[in-house]
Structures are given as C-alpha cells and as structure tokens.
Write a structure and sequence with these properties.
Chain lengths: 166, 339
C-alpha cells in the first residue's frame, strides 16, 4: 500500500518534471528540472530494492553528466534561434503524430508477447553490488568491454579536438 | 513503529544539533588555532576567552540585510545555498557513530541508517553539492563569481576522482560498501585501515583538503579575500548557509576519514589484548576524538602551508594523485590475490 503510494507520487513527480524540462524558458532551468527528474528516478530505483543503481544514477548521471551539460549551457550564451517553421498547426499535428506512435509502441509492449523485454532474473538480494558485478563480468563481459572501449575512443577524440598542438 | 520512525527521528535531531553546534565552534576554533600559530590570541572579548564569539557571528549573519542582485535569476539564487548545505547535512545519515546502544529501554543503532551502499551514498551526495557552487556563481549574474565558481567546481570534480579511487581500495579491503561493514571489517582484521593502506590515507587527506576548498588548495576561496568568490553576491542568511556548508563538509570528510581509515568507533589497537581496557571508553568518545584530531590537522595545515596556484593545483590532481591512486588500487589487488 505504501509502495503503491510511493510509486504513484514518484511517477507524478517524474512526469511533472519531464514536462517542465521541455517547457522551461531558460536553458539552465531545463537542466535543473532534469536533475530533479533523475533524483526522483533514483528514488524509484530505491523503492525497487536496487539501491546500488539508485546511488550510481545520482553519482554518474545527475552528479557527473548533468554537471557537464550545465557547464556547456552556462558558458555558451544561447539565444533563441530564428523561427524557421513556427506554424503552430503543423507543429501540433506532428506532435500528435509522434505521441500516437509512442502510445502504439507502449501498447504493443504491454499487450503482446514478442515486444516484451526479457523477464527479470531472480530477485535482488541486499548484496546488489556483488550480483551486478558478477553479472557484468561473466554474462555481459563483451558489452562491458565494448562500452569501456567506446569511452576510451571518446576521450581520445576529445583530447585531439581540444589540444592545440600534439 | 517506534523503532522505524521515532528512534531515527531522535537520532536525526541529535545529529543535526550536534553538527551545527560543532560547525559554529569550528569557526571559533579555526580563528583561535590560527592565532596561536601566529603567536597571538584570537577572539578574546566576547565571553570568556571568546567562547561566545560564534553566537555573536550567528546573530550578525541573521540580522544582515538580504540583498538579491537586480538581474539575478531569483529561483536559482535562492536554490544554490540550499543545494550546498543539504547534501552536506544528509551525508551524516550513514556515518556509524558508535556500536548499538540501549538507552532508556530503546534500542539505538549506532547510525541513523545502515544503507548497504553507504559509502557510495556519501560520494553521490557530495557530487550533488557541486551544483550549489556552480549555480551560486552563475545565478549572481556577475563575472567574478561565475569564473570563481567554475574554477572551484573544476577543482572539486578533479579531486573527486582521486578520492574515489582511494575509497575503492578501502572497499577492496573491507569487502562491503556499507559503512557499518567497513568498521566491522577493521574490528575483525584487528588493524585500522590507515596502517594497511597508508598511501590511500595520504591521498584521501590531500583530496579532502581540495574537496573542501581548504588551504593549501583554497585559491577559489582566497579570491574573495582579494577580489571575489562564488558567494560574493550573497549576504545575510544565504551567506551563512554557504559558510555553514563549508565547515559541515569539513566535518563530513573528517568523519568519513575516521570511519574508513581510523577505525570509526573502535578503540586504538583493537588487536592487542592487554589494551582492551580502552574498550571501556564508549565508542562515540573515540569517534569524536579521532574526528577532532583530523579537523585539527586541517586547521594546522591551513596555518602552515602556502597556497597552490590554480594550474599547479590541477596538475597535482591529474598528473600525480590520480596515477598514484590507480597504482595503489592495482597493488592492493595484486597483494590480495597473491598473498
């Protein structure tokens, strides 16, 4: 009962902050609402007994990546671009089309069987870190190595782009 | 119901009152210790030997006019001090202050919450605290605070990496992320982790000095003695928040160092049987003694060492501390596997 209440409150907050992200006028406010969004998502992870994931969400996503976004937004003085296509009826129609597409996707995931994501394994014990570590280094080793390789390539690219003389 | 709600509530109130009082008296202690190092006396007039000076400071900050710059972003300007102080305070929720006690028939656990990822929780709220600094500088709508806040936050995120690497070595030794588990691991192994990992302890200490913007890494802060800092446009209660947050961060970092490296609430030499009479002293007394020892070294270092220039500071963090910390992780792993 309390879990259901927590879930609905958190879900309302997440959706509310999401709407505020796209309707905020100042870019920095957008980022702050997104950070608040991520904190609520972390709370949702805690309610699902995935404490490690919650903490990593705050530490890496809200506390690392969004800080870099904030740096960029603060230092790049964003003015509104010239209004290219601001026909409200056309924008409204396109928006409606996109939302119908997403709704169909969600309905397919819920109703049919072939669009469903893989079933979750056994429940999470309080030993979150050990379970995730074990899974990451045995079953999912190749995606893990590929992801770290991708990060290395991104770092090397950033250094090459930013350095003046090599 | 009592155990899950009332006891933590009592502990939260006790911890917050204790921390805020300690912060107020840390301000006085800093002035006194610096004064004694410089062969003078420090505040002596307010109260006996200056003991009521913090109360005078608090009253002054409460009563000052609260100015908001004209074109500052009002919401973010108000949010920034909160984003600096609240993460510093909520980090105390997982710090184990003593073994479990039973007072007045109620069972008090030694910490407010035993989270199974306690150490990562502290690091993650520390990274939320960085937002307050960036936003404080940006929302002031003025050049010098913006530059100072960017410098300060760049320093913080650089040294966060070295500090996190040293925490990884402690986790490798303890086998658990829970703070209570780390103290118990030190009890079981019989050694404080500072003796098993001296390099990590040293790197943690240097990183802690940088993380809290303390000398010799206080260039972002010294700028306001000279020109301005990220909280230059703040006055009155908002400035008090930034001030409180800085000293609370110092206390958090000292408490984490005590728990991870100095054995938390354990007595010294837990592995020597004929010293077990030290165990009669309550755990929280040892914890407070160790934390204050650490804080005193912070003040001592500030009074003694000159300041690093900003590029020297960044070079030290990236080119020396991070490789040293990574090397430490590798060596710890090798020793664990081979020995």
């Amino acid at each position: 009962m309390a879990e259901a209440a927590a879930f609905y409150i958190l879900a309302a907050l997440i959706l509310g902050f999401g709407v505020l992200v796209i309707t905020a006028k100042s870019a920095v406010h957008c980022i702050l609402f997104l950070v608040a969004d991520f904190l609520c998502v972390a709370a949702l992870y805690v309610s699902l007994q995935a404490q490690f994931l919650a903490v990593i969400q705050v530490l890496v996503y809200a506390g690392g990546i969004m800080v870099l976004y904030l740096f960029v937004v603060m230092l790049v003085n964003l003015k509104r671009p010239p209004e290219a296509h601001s026909d409200p009826r056309r924008l409204g129609f396109l928006g409606l089309l996109m939302s119908v597409a997403v709704l169909v996707e969600l309905a397919l995931i819920v109703v049919t069987r072939w669009a469903r994501p893989a079933a979750a394994g056994s429940g999470l014990s309080p030993d979150n870190v050990r379970q995730i570590g074990r899974a990451l280094y045995t079953d999912y080793l190749i995606p893990f190595e590929l992801a770290s390789f991708l990060l290395l390539v991104a770092m090397v690219g950033a250094i090459i782009l930013a350095k003046r003389e090599l | 119901m009592v155990e899950t709600v009332i006891v933590p509530l009592i502990m939260i109130v006790m911890v917050i009152v204790a921390v805020l009082t300690t912060v107020m008296y840390m301000v006085l202690l800093e002035r006194k210790v610096q004064a004694w190092v410089q062969v003078r006396l420090g505040p002596m007039r307010v109260g006996h030997h200056g003991l009521l000076q913090p109360i005078a400071d608090v009253l002054k900050l409460f009563l000052k006019e609260d100015i908001t710059p004209a074109r500052a972003d009002r919401w973010v300007f108000t949010l920034a001090p909160i984003l600096v102080l609240v993460p510093a305070l909520i980090a105390f929720a997982v710090i184990p202050l003593s073994r479990d006690l039973t007072l007045f028939g109620l069972k008090f656990p030694g910490q407010i919450a035993d989270v199974n990822v306690g150490l990562l929780y502290i690091i993650s709220v520390a990274s939320i605290g960085i937002y307050g600094i960036i936003l404080g500088g940006w929302s002031s709508n003025s050049k010098y605070p913006l530059l100072a806040s960017l410098r300060s936050s760049a320093q913080l995120i650089s040294y966060e990496i070295a500090v996190t690497m040293t925490l990884v070595t402690v986790i490798m030794l303890a086998g658990t992320l829970s703070m209570v588990g780390i103290v118990n691991a030190q009890l079981q192994k019989g050694w404080w982790f500072a003796f098993m990992q001296p390099v990590a302890f040293f790197i943690y200490f240097v990183g802690a000095l940088a993380e809290t913007n303390r000398a010799p890494f206080d260039l972002p802060e010294a700028e306001q003695e000279l020109v301005a800092g990220f909280h230059t446009e703040y006055s009155g209660m908002r400035f008090a928040f930034f001030f409180l947050a800085e000293y609370t961060n110092m206390i958090v970092v000292s408490c984490v160092a005590t728990t991870l490296f100095l054995g938390g609430w354990l007595a010294p030499f837990p592995n020597v049987p004929w010293l077990s009479f030290l165990g009669y002293v309550p755990g929280w007394v040892w914890f407070i003694l160790k934390t204050f020892g650490f804080l005193y070294v912070f003040l001592w270092v500030r009074a003694t060492l000159p300041r690093y220039r900003y590029d020297q500071l960044m070079r030290l963090g990236w080119k020396w501390l991070i490789p040293l910390a990574i090397l430490n992780v590798v060596m710890t792993g090798l020793v664990k596997v081979l020995v």
